[in-house]
Design brief:
heterodimer, A: globular, B: alpha+beta, PmbA/TldD fold, 10 helices, disordered N terminus
């Protein structure tokens, strides 16, 4: 199924709304087409091509709402989805928090999220790029496992009050893990972009092979507090959990790390080191994102943390109305400002510390302090007098990104990074942090 | 059927408008066979040496509430076809929601062309363990009451009653939800199988929160329910299936109203509980906690694809390498540790008649008397560990995803001598009794793990001495299972599980259950997780 143009999406959604008998109706359609290739043990394992779409219909009677989805598009199926949403709505109890659907919105111009060359990636190109990575593994004498995927997608929403929006996006993501044949060393690298031209499969593969070769024969250090340099692929998995928790309602309700006694919150307070500036900007050239939110509100450039102070929290439309403030939707991408130092320069400026390539299996331990646990993985090295001295065994950590960002020593140049856990992209710098808490050793390589 | 076809008109219609309280319309088996044959013939005609087809129609229903509000009633339906082929000795896969003859044939052709592109990078051709075709067969989850038949209003009002019970019990906030899943999937292969399956799952759950306005602190207590492969009868309370310790636990039937009221009391008690003193304790782990430890530390490391390195780039590899299995004496756990894989277990999330590459469901030993004896494998791996046939562990989360090795139900077998949880606790001098699953994390080779829970009770000289908080236990997998000193008997055996066992790239979710009876683990490291920010 080809991606729908704006006109095609409009035509279809109008037809869907035409079936509606509800007080309010909203129809959304999204779809993607693309493919992937996965390799391991120096050979292709699985790969495929997928195209799919989904129509979502939300119907409301008064404050009673029902939602149905379907992926069949003949008239009977479209009507079936509308009737099902309406019946669900009629059967549902009233939701006192229901917010009337938005009318027409004005959005700023769309960012460059769709790149035709990325949409045109073929299974042959995916196989060719995989061949490059396997060649590098072969020459380095290591075993490669990797994954390359690309997609082109669209989404559109129309409602009975006149709202309409439409967007398109392309993505290409690559990650590779190279392991020494004796299983004592492992290295990882990844990249994810809207534009295939930014992707460097060979460069990433060389980095992973280098880390694999250098990480064999790791020494065990005692767990404890260490100065660490977190490469962006390591830092993102802690930072994304901070971004995702900047929620006004749960803070106001007393069940968030931002909650304070007496029903107060940390909004407006200094939370972390003043080097920390986190914002979102759909029009950032390196991390372009959609110009409207999932609930149809226009996206804006928003500062979330400025010089360490919490400047904004996410307010849903309901909570904003209840609190008498402007709604603030969640953005699709976060940006953390950095410094001018390269990763190598951060290492050179470190007397004693640990370089962390990747963090893994991050899970919340205590939401009151935003405490997370997880482990280092795929290349962890001891730094002394500005040089990488030797590989070290992996650690489990128990650390809060709030404590981590209070112990910030230096930031490097931000780079576009893909989370190895959540899969989302962010623009973040490498971070040098003191007193990072490692609580035990892991035998894993 | 695809959107492109809809815009141009002219389409087979597989469904007519239905009431959401009615079960999903079932696509006629004869039509599915006809569509499957289109795919198989197209793949063969393009040179595939093997092909399989999955036609899936998936319906999910979610009802989401908080306090006295129904936030969402969602009904989802998805229908499409996934075609997997071997051509030139390599796998290829393509999926489409365009279910007319042309759309299916094009997808089959695309799958073959992808396989041929990959073949030039292939070191060795794919070798499938032989599988005899079953002909035309079917299988259904044995359910007494279909949750989709229960009126939405009744289900929503039940959740609101659950919330009211929690609020009456002193909760500050409560979120609850009910998830219903129905997978209707049709499998056909060039081996001669045409398998029609109708699979049902249910998961009622909640989180109760208690806040303390004076201190700004809060505590939560999650539902002690389990997601299961049974019908709506799960929500019919049955006192004979309750297990009473210092709290109330549920086997096969769940009293959600009772659990919500108790959760509110317990969340309040957690606020005032003693913060644990870090150190070594004997742990008594309820199945509501232990299922997740089994999942992470036994289920995952015995997946053969991890052992072989297929997951090295994402989910990880495994410490249970082939040499340990070949030695026939790798001491995974103590003598009381017996762990089975079972795709036939009634009521479990992983129960099916046949897996997603047409292999009949079976059960087998993984750990026998503490020793590693087997893995979990699929057709293209079976030969590597000397099996003449697959163990039937292949699964795809939907028609649009390629099937691959996924975890079977992996369960700790109950002890053979009579032992109840209360009797087990009586023998513990200094320990912690842990109920419910909480935070969980394990390394990529499954050595080092950390788990938390919902309820923690200090045990002093065989008696419960009060509630603790800020508890997490850390261990090495092999040391942990070798510290297993006792497992309660069959009367205490219960299933836990998840809908969200993640693996693969692109990542897919698998639903899987893990059975256990309450078990004791000696001298486990407990850390205190309290921090200040």
């Amino acid at each position: 199924m080809p991606l729908l143009s704006q006109d095609e999406a409009q035509t279809l959604l109008k037809k869907v709304l035409g079936f509606s008998k509800a007080d309010e109706c909203e129809a959304s359609i999204g779809g993607s087409e693309g493919g992937n290739i996965r390799y391991a043990r120096n050979s292709v394992s699985t790969s495929g091509a997928v195209n799919s779409t989904e129509l979502r219909v939300s119907s409301t009677f008064g404050k009673k709402q029902g939602i149905a989805t379907i992926n069949e598009y003949d008239d009977a199926s479209l009507e079936k989805a509308v009737r099902r949403a309406e019946t669900l709505a009629q059967l549902a109890p009233e939701n006192p928090e229901y917010m009337p659907m938005l009318g027409p919105q004005t959005y700023q111009s769309a960012a460059r999220t769709f790149v035709p060359n990325t949409a045109a990636i073929t299974s042959r190109l995916r196989a060719d790029l995989t061949g490059q990575s396997l060649d590098i593994a072969g020459k380095a004498g290591v075993t490669a496992a990797g994954y390359l995927e690309n997609s082109a997608s669209f989404s559109a929403t129309m409602n009975s009050k006149g709202l309409f929006n439409y967007s398109t996006q392309t993505d290409v993501n690559f990650s590779v893990t190279m392991r020494t044949t004796d299983g004592t060393g492992s290295g990882y690298a990844s990249g994810g972009y809207n534009d295939i031209a930014s992707l460097d499969v060979a460069g990433n593969s060389k980095t992973a092979a280098w880390k694999a070769a250098k990480s064999g024969g790791a020494k065990a250090l005692e767990p404890g507090k260490y100065t660490v340099i977190l490469e962006p692929a390591a830092g993102i998995v802690l930072l994304e959990n901070l971004y995702g928790s900047l929620d006004a309602r749960s803070a106001d309700e007393g069940r968030n790390f931002l909650s304070l006694p007496g029903g107060k919150t940390r909004l407006g307070e200094k939370l972390v080191d003043e080097q920390v500036n986190i914002y979102s900007d759909p029009w950032n050239e390196t991390l372009p994102t959609r110009n409207y939110s999932s609930d149809g509100l226009p996206q804006e450039k928003i500062s979330w943390i400025e010089k360490g102070v919490v400047k904004n929290l996410n307010y849903s439309r309901y909570w904003a109305q209840k609190k008498g403030v402007k709604p603030v939707p969640n953005p699709d991408g976060f940006i953390m400002t950095g410094g001018t130092a390269s990763l190598d320069e951060l290492i050179k400026g470190t007397e004693k510390g640990i370089l962390v390539t990747r963090l893994w299996y991050i899970r919340s331990v205590d939401p009151q302090t935003l405490l997370f646990t997880g482990l280092t993985r795929d290349g962890t090295f001891y730094i002394e007098n500005g040089q990488i001295k030797f590989p070290v065994k992996n650690f489990r950590f128990n650390e809060s990104p709030i404590i981590m960002l209070n112990n910030l020593e230096a930031l490097g140049v931000p780079v576009r990074t893909v989370s190895g856990e959540g899969g989302g992209a962010a623009l973040i710098p490498p971070m040098k942090v003191r007193d990072f808490t490692f609580s035990s050793l892991s035998d894993a390589v | 059927m695809g959107l492109g076809a809809a815009l141009t008109g002219g389409i087979p219609v597989f469904g007519s408008p239905v009431h959401p309280d009615k079960p999903l319309d079932v696509v006629d088996v004869a039509l599915k066979k006809q569509l499957a044959d289109v795919a198989l013939n197209a793949a063969r005609s393009k040179g595939a040496t093997y092909a399989d087809v999955r036609i899936g129609r998936y319906r999910n229903q979610f009802i989401v509430t908080r306090e006295d509000k129904v936030l969402n009633t969602v009904d989802t339906e998805s229908y499409g076809i996934g075609i997997r082929v071997i051509a030139g000795g390599s796998w290829g896969f393509a999926a489409t929601d365009r279910l007319d003859n042309d759309g299916i044939a094009r997808a089959a052709e695309l799958a073959v062309s992808i396989a041929r592109e990959n073949a030039r990078l292939q070191k060795e051709p794919v070798r499938l363990a032989p599988q005899k075709g079953y002909g035309e067969v079917s299988w259904k989850t044995p359910i007494a009451k279909n949750g989709f038949d229960v009126p939405i209003k009744e289900k929503a009002e039940y959740l609101l009653a659950v919330n009211a019970a929690a609020m009456k019990g002193g909760a500050s906030w409560v979120n609850s939800a009910l998830f219903l899943v129905n997978e209707q999937k049709y499998f056909a292969s060039t081996d001669g199988s045409y398998i029609d399956q109708d699979i049902h799952r249910i998961w009622p759950t909640f989180t109760v929160t208690k806040t303390d306005d004076k201190t700004g602190k809060f505590e939560t207590r999650d539902s002690l329910s389990a997601p299961l492969g049974i019908g709506y009868e799960y929500l019919q309370p049955d006192d004979s299936k309750k297990i009473k310790t210092v709290t109330t636990l549920y086997r096969d039937r769940y009293d959600m109203l009772e659990d919500a009221a108790l959760a509110a009391e317990q969340a309040t008690a957690k606020l005032g509980a003693k913060s644990v003193e870090a150190g070594k304790y004997d742990l008594v782990l309820d199945p509501t906690n232990l299922w997740l430890t089994i999942h992470e530390s036994c289920g995952h490391p015995t997946e053969l694809d991890r052992v072989l390195g297929y997951e090295a780039n994402f989910a990880g590899t495994s410490f249970l390498t082939l040499d340990k299995w070949e030695s026939k004496k790798f001491n995974y756990g103590s003598k009381v540790v017996n762990i089975k894989a079972d795709k036939t277990q009634v009521g479990s999330l992983g129960a099916v008649g046949y897996d997603d590459e047409g292999v009949g469901a079976k059960e087998w030993d993984i750990i026998k008397d503490g020793v590693l004896v087997n893995y979990q494998a699929i057709r293209d791996q079976a030969g590597i560990i000397g099996l003449s046939e697959s163990q039937g562990c292949c699964y795809a989360q939907s028609w649009r995803d390629v099937q691959f090795q996924r975890m079977a139900n992996i369960s700790l077998q109950p002890g053979k001598s009579p032992l109840s949880p209360n009797e087990l606790i009586k023998n513990v001098e200094r320990g912690i009794y842990i109920v419910g699953d909480g935070s969980y994390s394990i390394d990529q080779q499954r050595y080092n793990f950390q788990f938390s829970g919902q309820l923690f009770y200090e045990i002093k000289e065989g008696k419960i001495a009060g509630m603790l908080k800020d508890v997490a236990y850390q261990a090495n997998t092999q040391e942990f299972w070798n510290s297993c000193a006792a497992v309660c008997d069959q009367r205490d055996y219960r299933l836990g599980g998840t809908f969200f066992d993640g693996k693969g790239q692109p990542e897919q979710s698998n639903s899987v259950s893990h059975g256990a009876a309450t078990a004791r683990f000696n001298g486990i490291n407990v850390i205190n997780t309290a921090r200040k920010i």
